[in-house]
Amino acid sequence: xxxxxxxxxxxxxxxxxxxxxxxxxxxxxxxxxxxxxxxxxxxxxxxxxxxxxxxxxxxxxxxxxxxxxxxxxxxxxxxxxxxxxxxxxxxxxxxxxxxxxxxxxxxxxxxxxxxxxxxxxxxxxxxxxxxxxxxxxxxxxxxxxxxxxxxxxxxxxxxxxxxxxxxxxxxxxxxxxxxxxxxxxxxxxxxxxxxxxxxxxxxxxxxxxxxxxxxxxxxxxxxxxxxxxxxxxxxxxxxxxxxxxxxxxxxxxxxxxxxxxxxxxxxxxxxxxxxxxxxxxxxxxxxxxxxxxxxxxxxxxxxxxxxxxxxxxxxxxxxxxxxxxxxxxxxxxxxxxxxxxxxxxxxxxxxxxxxxxxxxxxxxxxxxxxxxxxxxxxxxxxxxxxxxxxxxxxxx
Length: 396
Ligand code: MG
Hints:
Blueprint: E1 6-12, E2 28-29, E3 32-33, H1 34-43, E4 48-55, H2 60-70, E5 77-81, H3 86-99, E6 107-112, H4 120-133, E7 135-141, E8 148-149, E9 155-157, E10 165-167, E11 171-174, H5 175-187, H6 196-201, E12 208-211, H7 222-231, E13 238-251, E14 255-258, E15 261-264, E16 268-269, H8 277-289, H9 295-298, H10 312-324, E17 328-337, H11 347-358, E18 365-370, H12 376-379, E19 383-394
Parallel strand pairs: 1-4, 1-6, 4-5, 7-12, 17-18
Antiparallel strand pairs: 2-3, 6-11, 7-10, 7-11, 8-9, 13-16, 13-19, 14-15, 17-19
Helix pairs in contact: 1-2, 3-5, 8-10
This protein binds magnesium ion.
């Protein structure tokens, strides 16, 4: 390990809950985990060795799968345990290199696992910049005009964007100083640094910048995964939309179930299951994206098995049907139509629950409500209606 190549530390210990389901570094992209694309690209860059991936202690299995899918041999790839914070995880990666006698004047690149499209040119720019300056980070000019806003969202000023840059990884450092800085900050009890340039800057070190790469975008949202699929050269995904509508009439009772959440009310909803119009509408919207009938066909009201059933069963079934056809749910959006009860206070709980059932980020679940202005059956408080749409991506 004591050759003159640059070490790469991949920070992959995050739990990555924003995308829902698996952490983002293990989400599938072109049929393989995101991390395996990065490992394969890093392995193809001769200037890099070794490659240390810092993973969550519980992620041994997904890491092993990503490594196997990358084709990278284990003599170039090493795993270090993640810590309680990003900073602690990087420190563990650096200590791994220290234990392997990585030279103090060698260059170490520290890179986010969620930026899989690492290119040789960026790595070479990083190494050159760090050899010259000791510490360097990749930046991109800002395309859009930048606004500084106040707490109420009003415009304060337009900072001169010529002086501003967006920051990417890999950030590059001489090994000795970055290791020393990490150790010093840990000893001082400072665990609040979200990136390594910020950490070493706190020791007084000047940081140089070098040109980043637009293809090094970070995968944070579902839309980024779709962009990454397109970048891989896969055909543009096919997006399908489905529509759902449902109504349940009021009956005697003291609560209604809306979006899986029991809400106290002076009436109940009549139906064979838990009579949840929002979940039923979303279920039908999902089934609509694959032309697979409707909820009544799969769970007939005449079947006693579904009496009182929780509707999340139907929703989970629709998700499984979509995924069995190769679909990836992008978002669902529903509207409840009723004069009462008030849905607003329960919106976060409903969105969280539906996101959980569908493996989505919470912001990919729209939950809205409106009255019917006292018009029609909903306006006369005879029942509650719900409408929903779903979008699903299929490979092209
Ligand atoms: Mg229904």
